Amino acid sequence: MIGITQIISGCLKQDARCQKALYEKYYGYALKIVFRYIYHYDKAVDVVNDGYVKLFMKFSTFKCENEEHLEKMFMGWLRQIMVNTAIDALRKNDLMPEIGGIADHVWEEPDRSANADQRVLYKELMIYVKKLPPVYRIVFNMFVIDGFTHHEIAESLCISVGTSKSNLSKARALLQKFINKDSGAIEICSI
């Protein structure tokens, strides 16, 4: 099995074997990212494949000076490409919500170091996030889960920074309402 350094070096040289290894290694990760935006499996798979096409076309722009952080840097770059590709697909469909069920494992936090309670809370939160209107869900996912700034979200979605902040605030309020309705009086203060 070849390491991530060799795979990335091979991809920079457009080596098809390394491109296939990279695709297979991170396909599940990419699909989980896209599923947070696009709920129909077939469409999500298409978006992931489109994202990989973009990734391989732009691979020469990927830079990482510190080899010990190479995989983290690559995964962040891959995440950004997949989120942007999903948003482009949603924009083509006027941000209409996707219809279809998503398996619960898709919403699980990829961080395996989290304890069981944290994973359960994350999974429960994702159930509520799926109920949000599409624009609120997208801004919430981008800001809270994917770590984009309001400026980056505004640029990506062609909205103002104020609209991004407003949509996040409304998403939080709706999530609070969903949770309060189901469980009594839990508060989401610092999501």
UniProtKB/TrEMBL annotation:
InterPro entries: RNA_pol_sigma-70-like, RNA_pol_sigma-70_dom, RNA_pol_sigma70_r2, RNA_pol_sigma70_r4_t2, RNA_pol_sigma_r2, RNA_pol_sigma_r3/r4-like, WH-like_DNA-bd_sf. Residues 22-94 form the RNA polymerase sigma-70 region domain. Keywords: Sigma factor, Transcription, Transcription regulation. Residues 129-175 form the RNA polymerase sigma factor 70 region 4 type domain. Belongs to the sigma-70 factor family. ECF subfamily. This is RNA polymerase sigma factor. It comes from Pinibacter soli. The lineage of its organism: Bacteria, Pseudomonadati, Bacteroidota, Chitinophagia, Chitinophagales.
